């Protein structure tokens, strides 16, 4: 009887989760080309206003890298109607919090407020878009902020240049080849007019999506959106170049010396397709099999059982145009980079030749079901997902249907995709080692 009650309880709980997973939304365009997505969730008195701009590090001039990330900071400096230094004070004084982040593909700003401050959030984001003050004092201030961020997060962080070094070697033509944070020399050399031109080109309504999610009244929200965003002039159409990388057909090596580390790391990087492809999702699953958690194949064998590595992992680094599949490891004393890479290759070869067991496949599917639920568990998560699926994937409803893609992936596809992309002749090996003067101390 107790088991029956527990089973019934589980069934009811799963039913609740299943119904909660469906994210309802409404989308439309303003006359100036700005895309709007609304999601109503009245379960808590919280609202998020967010704007994603289709501009990232890949849109920069090769001689002026770091602009997109710089604007992530610069556009908090103030507007014609929000005095310099007042942005964060206004947000906190009204019970909110806010932030922004930048990738190679897009820049995202958001405010979270109690729902009675929805109009304030919309006004502030419209101010950022319509009346930004791009001044020399703001540029100089944020230049120092970005330099300090680079010192803390990159220059003085152990293995802080890992992704940047992989990208630099993996891409020869595509702008993915430079770091998102960019070059401090480029930022120092840039003129105020260059920053103003970048703003005028990319921070326009027709290059943005506005997402409002949470405890909102749809009709009132639409009126405020029209009031605050409707008058913003449409910008010139944003045109982008496309870049085609030649396939990697022969393994090559690179070396980077990091003064912040004592233990060397070896990295194998394979170029992979856009995150919009089915194969990219299969590669996500492959990384979960190989290195998600201590029971994963690579960790269990190389770290736990054989004790050859202090750390071992793999992940799929997906982006709008291309991706990278990255395998990394730190050898234990007495073992070399070649030793642990040989073991990693053996695990990949097993995936390429043998189907994973039904039990492991079931566990894998459960992991992705859980990730799907968790990604939409907060209004902030829903807003970010809605913006991302519209801006980078071109299909907002993927917030509800992408899980079906993962559900439909077969064991045979996992084998075939591993065989298609993860071969030794298709990769770069990066020896990420201590700086020579560091190693001698």
Automatic annotation (TrEMBL):
User: Which Pfam families does UniProt cross-reference here?
Assistant: Peptidase_M16 (PF00675), Peptidase_M16_C (PF05193)
Q: Which family does it belong to?
A: Belongs to the peptidase M16 family.
Can you name the source organism? Flavobacterium litorale
Q: Any keyword Ribonucleoprotein? A: no
The segment(s) forming the Peptidase M16 C-terminal domain are 190-367
Q: Where is the Peptidase M16 N-terminal domain?
A: 36-177
- List keywords of the entry alphabetically: Hydrolase, Metalloprotease, Protease, Signal, Zinc
Carries keyword Protease?
yes
Q: Which InterPro entries match?
A: Metalloenz_LuxS/M16, Pept_M16_N, Peptidase_M16, Peptidase_M16_C
Q: What is this protein called?
A: Insulinase family protein
| Signal peptide (residue range) | 1-20
């Amino acid at each position: 009887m107790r088991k029956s009650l527990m089973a019934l309880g589980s069934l009811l709980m799963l039913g609740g989760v299943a119904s909660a997973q469906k994210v309802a939304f409404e989308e439309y365009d303003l006359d100036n080309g700005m895309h709007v997505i609304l999601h109503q969730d009245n379960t808590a008195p919280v609202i998020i206003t967010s704007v994603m701009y289709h501009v990232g590090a890949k849109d920069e001039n090769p001689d002026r890298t770091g602009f997109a990330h710089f604007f992530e900071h610069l556009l908090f400096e103030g507007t014609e109607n929000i005095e310099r230094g007042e942005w964060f004070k206004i947000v906190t004084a009204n019970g909110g919090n806010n932030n922004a982040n930048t990738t190679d593909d897009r820049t995202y700003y958001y405010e979270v407020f109690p729902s009675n401050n929805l109009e304030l959030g919309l006004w502030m984001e419209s101010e950022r878009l319509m009346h930004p003050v791009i001044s020399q004092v703001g540029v100089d201030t944020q230049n120092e902020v970005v330099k300090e961020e680079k010192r803390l997060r990159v220059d003085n962080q152990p293995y802080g240049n890992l992704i940047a070094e992989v990208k630099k070697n993996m891409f020869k033509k595509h702008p993915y080849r430079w770091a998102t944070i960019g070059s401090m020399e480029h930022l120092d050399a840039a003129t105020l007019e260059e920053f103003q031109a970048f703003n005028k080109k990319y921070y326009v309504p027709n290059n943005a999506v506005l997402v409002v999610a949470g405890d909102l009244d749809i009709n009132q929200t639409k009126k405020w959106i029209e009031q605050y965003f409707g008058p913003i002039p449409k910008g010139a159409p944003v045109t982008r170049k496309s870049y085609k990388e030649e396939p990697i057909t022969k393994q090559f090596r690179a070396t980077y010396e990091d003064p912040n580390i004592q233990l060397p790391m070896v990295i194998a990087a394979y170029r992979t397709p856009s995150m919009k492809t089915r194969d990219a999702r299969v590669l996500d699953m492959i990384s979960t099999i190989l290195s998600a958690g201590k029971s994963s194949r690579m960790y269990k064998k190389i770290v736990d059982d054989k004790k050859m590595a202090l750390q071992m992992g793999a992940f799929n680094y997906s982006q709008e145009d291309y991706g990278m599949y990255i395998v990394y490891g730190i050898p234990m004393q007495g073992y070399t980079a070649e030793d642990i890479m040989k073991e990693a290759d053996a695990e990949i070869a097993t995936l390429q030749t043998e189907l994973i067991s039904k039990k492991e496949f079931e566990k894998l599917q459960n992991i992705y079901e859980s990730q799907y639920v968790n990604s939409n568990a907060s209004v902030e998560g829903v807003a970010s997902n809605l913006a991302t699926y519209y801006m980078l994937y071109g299909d907002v409803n993927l917030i509800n249907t992408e899980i079906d893609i993962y559900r439909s992936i077969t064991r045979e596809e996992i084998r075939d995709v591993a065989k298609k992309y993860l071969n030794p002749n298709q990769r770069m090996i990066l020896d990420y080692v201590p700086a020579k003067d560091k190693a001698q101390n």
